[in-house]
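Thread: Modeling a multi-component assembly for a lab meeting

Hi all, long-time lurker, first post. My supervisor asked me to bring a structural picture of a complex we are working on to next week's group meeting, and I have zero experience with this. I have the sequence lines for every component (626 residues in total). Could someone generate the structure of the whole assembly? Inputs are pasted exactly as I received them:
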Amino acid sequence: MSEPVKWCVAVIGCGLIGESWAALCLAHGHDVRAWDPAAERREGFAERLTRPLAQLAEVGQTGPGGNLPRGHLTVTASLPEAVAQADIVQENAPEQIPLKRALYTEIEAAATEDAIIASSTSALTWSDLTPEMRNPDRFITAHPFNPPHLIPLVELYGTQERVLERAEAFYRGIGRIPARLKKDAVGHIANRLASALWREAVHIVAEDIADVASVDAALRHGPGLRWSVVGAHMAYHLGGGTGGMAHYLAHLGPSQARRWKTLGSRDLTPEVCDLLIAGIAEEAAGRSIADLEAERDAGLIRALKVREKDNDV
Amino acid sequence: MSEPVKWCVAVIGCGLIGESWAALCLAHGHDVRAWDPAAERREGFAERLTRPLAQLAEVGQTGPGGNLPRGHLTVTASLPEAVAQADIVQENAPEQIPLKRALYTEIEAAATEDAIIASSTSALTWSDLTPEMRNPDRFITAHPFNPPHLIPLVELYGTQERVLERAEAFYRGIGRIPARLKKDAVGHIANRLASALWREAVHIVAEDIADVASVDAALRHGPGLRWSVVGAHMAYHLGGGTGGMAHYLAHLGPSQARRWKTLGSRDLTPEVCDLLIAGIAEEAAGRSIADLEAERDAGLIRALKVREKDNDV
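Re: Modeling a multi-component assembly
Sure thing. I ran the full set together rather than chain by chain. Output:
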């Protein structure tokens, strides 16, 4: 099958994640047909894309060469109308297994046999979602990282190499960087890493080693900045000097293993929650969620503008 | 005591970390007196600063206003000559307790009473290092993150607020961003977070969920990029929507706790080490350590050029 230059993308679920996917696809010249069961989320959807589309234009995410006309957006009144012509369906429903399974039954009934069905699920796995599907082979999990139109990562898992290759080409085409899982896993890769780090970040606060704002500052100006350029494994490869990872493991592996034993794990008791809530209020220092999001987006946009497309360290 | 505009900085230990500190101090107009017990590390020290100094100039780290003349470098033949006039002594010796303790005895004998004595130690704690000191009150741990002249973080712990305030002002003056510990801890903050994350990164490879290169790609293009802008606690505050951290903890805290239970911990067995070594070779794809370091530095320099000085999200 030859791939379309202009894909028809069905966006199912018009919340924040759906907005990001729609903006990305439109910016890269694809047509989008969007649907949400809630009329209040269908209404005003086009207007809500103004901000992500402006941000994408700012970071140069405007299609190959930047000269493709923006795609066409249609908000449909029903699910079948959204998916009937779709080359790919991107589902962004709430994280409830029965709800998602029921949606896939509806999608399969209306979509063509070749359409890829992709779920943005962060908490559920491929195996959780597919048991009732007629053709699970064309189903993949394709998990973006919030805010999805600015963070390039999309994590892919599926069972058919051909489907994954088509999906990978599509996501690369809208400026995403795919990372493949070889096995279905709760939290995919990125949220497993984020959870592991946050567990220790909570422990540090609960142990009174440092306050919330200091932990966040240490992360942003230390390992976070470095991990935006060099992955965790690669950092230790470089930490091994000219001997690389083998030298690192032989000489510093034992001290890592010892440090692992000093790491903590805390229950999110009311006392720990109170510490986190008080600490984040201190860090926010009066800034509203909207202020903080705007600062986050501005910081991400500055960072994205200077990122090499093929930064492959 | 009024603080000098131009500090005299003793750099003890002329390896990679010493080079970074010396370059930072000189670039910001301070005088540096450097010493190392090994003649081969004293020799050529000035020449080895050429590259970090050029990198600092590239990111605009050339002192307040960028118009201070570069400081003066003296490589001394003995430790007392390096520390006698120092306002601050930055020690970068190997991570061995007896060695460091012996150095502090020598430093205390030669330095003025007001000199701050700071250790770059990553693996040891304030309590490990101070028992034999005459005046431990002016001793602090000041841990930079590799590569220290490019990564802004310095993690501070000490027992005297006045000393910490002076040190903090000094480090801010050379473009560093200090994060304070309230309690002595192995790995300070950043390496505890990095260890916690890497433990899971190793587990993901050992479980065959994803390969080394995919884990690194997911980190760099997902959470790493975001953590370079927004800390881990702040990310969940924003993940809670308008209800912030309190809403996040109430609604998604339990799912985090469940995810924590699925995270792994692996011994660095020969089999696991082989997987990591083979995986990193695949990711490096023939690039030497020097190539990879050059790419890392180039990526960091691009990121640093667009960072806001007071990016405080």
